[in-house]
Amino acid sequence: MAGWRSALRTEWSGLLAVLAAGAAALAVTRPAFLSEYNLYVVLTSFSLWSIVAMAQMVTLAVGQMNLAVGALGGLVAVAVGGLIEVWGAPLPAAVLAGLLIGLAGGAINGALVVGTGINGFIITLATLSAYRGIDYGITHSQPFYAMPAALKAFGVERWGAVPALLVVPLVVVPAMALIMRRTLLGRHMLAVGGNPQAAALSGIPARRTIVAAHVISGGLAAIAAMMTVARLQQAQPTIGSDWLILSFAAPIIGGAALQGGHVSVLGTCLGVLLVTLINDALVLVEIDPFWVQVVLGALILGAVGLNRLREGRRPGEAVAR
Question: H-type helices in 183-264, by residue range?
Answer without folding.
Answer: 184-194, 196-201, 206-232, 244-253
